[in-house]
């Protein structure tokens, strides 16, 4: 137990380097302790530190499962993650124990959609490949067909997932004049689709007809490795595959094979399995891929606000009040 004399609630923060504005909010009324390195807290340390705490401020790099909740003890009231994704938290187990779960949707929607467009354009117009030529002497002269890519204009774009982020991606793709935007979701969203003239299609149709496929869904048991060898097999040979959701949505070995044998044209990934991607991963030997280190929401103001929302979620939960963004369990 770590109740202080002043009986302030105790919070453990797994990331000392979240923007200080969030930590300051917590420190006003809580006793805050943090992990002390800019890398994920080791599991054993987390298990030790969470014991007796009232709340946990965590990130997607922390696996919050039964073992962690057991180690915490029954006084734990809240787990708040500085992310919109919460597949790293066993929410069912939290529900059973009456532990409230906070996350940070909405605030990062625009930043993530913006990064998705940046990644898409970097991939289809081969920006990194081209940039390399400037430095390695590959740039001999302007040449008619050199470094040509496949434009968005007139193309069919398929969005896998059409939630907050998917809709904002669609809104940003729309001005590039694709021939059609389609989306695949569990439930049709006609009202939201209308704004960007998007058409609902089933998974198979999206796979078979898209020039671009953009993954922007949550990682759930249903979407885990849904992009497998079978899926890549159905894609058009000019298909460009973009993933800014979770690496777990993709069978990465199948993606490698599809890119290697030019079954599809190219891929742009902001998320991989694992993260970081080992330096000897076969994906890194390919020319037709752009890989970014999970920076979708990495916009300064966005990350600052994520830090504060996570703190406010904790403060609300500890006060027994409505949280700003609570995972409905
Ligand atoms: C999230 O929020 O889930 C992103 O992956 C990181 O911001």
Automatic annotation (TrEMBL):
Keywords of the record:
Oxidoreductase
Q: Which Pfam families match?
A: 2-Hacid_dh (PF00389), 2-Hacid_dh_C (PF02826)
Q: Does the keyword Isomerase apply?
A: no
Has keyword Repressor? no
Instruction: Tell me the ranges covered by the D-isomer specific 2-hydroxyacid dehydrogenase catalytic domain, including all copies.
Output: 17-327
- CC annotations in GO: cytosol
Tell me where the signal peptide lies: none
Domain of life, source organism:
Eukaryota
| Domain D-isomer specific 2-hydroxyacid dehydrogenase NAD-binding: start-end pairs | 117-296
User: What molecular functions are annotated in GO for this chain?
Assistant: glyoxylate reductase (NADPH) activity; hydroxypyruvate reductase (NADH) activity; NAD binding
Q: Which InterPro entries match?
A: D-isomer_2-hydroxyacid_DH, D-isomer_2_OHA_DH_cat_dom, D-isomer_DH_NAD-bd, NAD(P)-bd_dom_sf
Q: Which family does it belong to?
A: Belongs to the D-isomer specific 2-hydroxyacid dehydrogenase family.
State the name under which the record lists this protein: Glyoxylate reductase/hydroxypyruvate reductase
